[in-house]
Predict the structure of FecR family protein.
Amino acid sequence: MDKYEDYTIEDFLSDEPFMTWVLTPDPAQEKFWNNWLTEHPEKQALASRAKNILLSLHPLPAATPLSADELAVIVHNIRQNIIPAKQKPLIISLISSTWFRVAAVLLIVLSFTFIIFKNKNTQSLLPAAVQYTSAVVNYVNRDQQAKFIKLSDGSLVILKPNSSLSYPQRFTGARREVKLVGEAFFEVHKNPQQPFLVYTHNMITRVLGTSFTVRAFPGEAKFKVIVNTGRVEVYERNKQDLTVSSVVLIPNQQATFTRKQSHLFKDTVTVPLMLSQKIATRVFSFNNAPLADIIGKLEEAYHVHINYDQAKFSGATVTASLSRLPLDEKIKMICKAIGAQCDFDNGTITIK
């Protein structure tokens, strides 16, 4: 028999799978509860009321994560303060009141919320190390020029000199995970079902689909994440690989971790980035523009060298709006306009 068929509102409020679905849903939970509610329309109103009560709490993770012992004490004390009806017969009518029981359950929900966010931020969401699920590529850029890398999901990486990137040949797990030492620019292919995580020294950068730069050279005093487009979450890890702080970045914002202060903070970049949408719309809209001018703007924005025969294409012009395209699609569009071919082999970009 389906245990949820006889659930009351307080049963839903104290049910761990239900609370997890409301407060920190994932695709599997969404599928289960949506299917169950469709099959049990008589419970939809009750489940909706329970869900609204949980959401009205606006639970937030603690600024400093609670230890397991602290959480256990909180839950124990709360349970001790819920007076058992059998021990207090004079107040049975009060105990049996729906709202009294709901209020008692909500106290436990608050503690449960701390547990959810603590576990989510430090374990399930952000594993301590990269967990590759297929053969790994270790790419080291020892040249003086940035190298172009295209990942199996279509995401692009511009790996700067004296930097290295470890990544799987194919992204097959629940997350797309790479490890960076040095500096790289990322244009991540959007996939909400498979978050993209970049691991560096003391930081993990988590995105769904966006463009940003990560700079984390060993020995430097500061590590940075700079966002061009989209939304990025940056997490600071301690020596035990637990998340101790995090910031959310939007375009033209950056997060900086300083070794001296051992602290993560965010601010706005002083000069708007060329690849941020507002600037890019203007910079990468061309009307009969010479190819040399377009290549110059691409190299300035992406900090990557593009090889082409200047004499051969001296008279070539392009009319196009390229602002919303990733770098490889920009190059392909340009080549199509001038009747050329493009090559992305060996970490270099060539128009021929």
Q: What stands out?
A: Confidence is low (pLDDT under 50) at residues 58-100, 111-125. The first strand starts at residue 136 and ends at 141. DSSP finds ten helices and 18 strands in the chain.
